[in-house]
Each structure stands twice: as structure tokens, then as C-alpha cells.
Amino acid sequence: MTEPASQPVPATGTASLGRVLRDQRKTFFVALGLAVATYWIAGQLGEWGLAGCIVAGIALGLANHVATEYWLLKTITSGAQPSRNELIAATLVRLAVLSVVAVGIAVWFWPDGIGLLLGLAIFRLIALVMTSVPLLKELNHP
């Protein structure tokens, strides 16, 4: 007799936006630091429109990060085992909406709008590093 390949994950509390926001405090501080640095650097160069677009990209990246974390927390706490297709569909929808909004804003505010894509990319890179470092530390210290 064989058992199913995957067992449901037990529910560990409730998913709420407040919980995600508390869990992502460091990410918010990094985003705030990036925004302040952007205005400080680009403002001295007189590029206020570019600075605003970069900060909008950082904010868009932060919103995407929080939406992703909320979806993951909701999935984990529900105990559900989403299929690979459900994971792919949820990710594609979220990224499609993000891409349409980002490119639309970038075109609307062209040429400064390219800063939005730059801010989005910088935030994504830093968020990736912030989530990878703890995982790498965990792998090195069993």
C-alpha cells in the first residue's frame, strides 16, 4: 500500500495583510532607504522626474513583493497543496499585471519613465538577495 506523495501542510495561524507587513519590515526599510537615496542623488542632479519614476518603480516592486508574500502565506496557512499549474497560473497573472502597469507608466512618462523599470529591477535584485541570504545561511548551519 502506498501513501500519497504529498501530505497537506498543517495550518499555522491565519493569513492577513498585517502579518505579511510585519514579516516584511526589513524589506520596507530597504525600499524606504532606496527611495531616500534616489531623491538625494537624482535631486542634486536636478532630475526630479527621473527620481519620482525610480521611486515609483521601487514602490511597484514592493507592492509585487507584498502580494507574492501574502499569496504564499495564504496558501501555506490554508494547508492546501497547489498544483504546479496553479502556481504557474498565479505567478503569470501577477507578473502580467505588473508588466502591463510598469510598461504603461514607463511609456506615459517617457523618457523619465525608464527610471520606473530601473527602480523595479533594483528593488527586485535587492529583495532577491534579502530572501536568499537567510536560506544560504540555513544551508550552511544545519
Broad structural category: mainly alpha
Overall domain count:
1
Strand content: under 5%
Report, as a whole number of angstroms, the end-to-end distance. Answer: 33 Å
Main β-sheet description = none
- The shape, in one word, is globular
Task: Give the helices and strands as they follow along the chain.
Answer: HHHHH
| Rg (C-alpha, Å) | 18 Å
Relative helix content: over 70%
Low-confidence parts = 1-11
Average pLDDT = 83
Q: Kindly state the number of beta strands.
A: 0
Total helices: the number is 5
In short:
With 142 residues, the protein is mainly alpha-helical. The chain contains five helices and no strands.
Explain what this protein looks like in three dimensions:
The chain has one domain (17-140). With 142 residues, the protein is mainly α. Helix 2 (25-44) packs antiparallel against helix 3, helix 3 crosses helix 5 (114-140) and helix 4 packs antiparallel against helix 5 (114-140). The radius of gyration is 18 Å and the shape is globular. The chain has 5 helices and no strands.
Task: Map the helices and strands.
Elements: H1 17-23, H2 25-44, H3 48-78, H4 84-108, H5 114-140
Helix pairs in contact: 2-3, 2-5, 3-4, 3-5, 4-5
Pick out its properties.
single chain, 142 residues, 77% helix, 0% strand, disordered N terminus
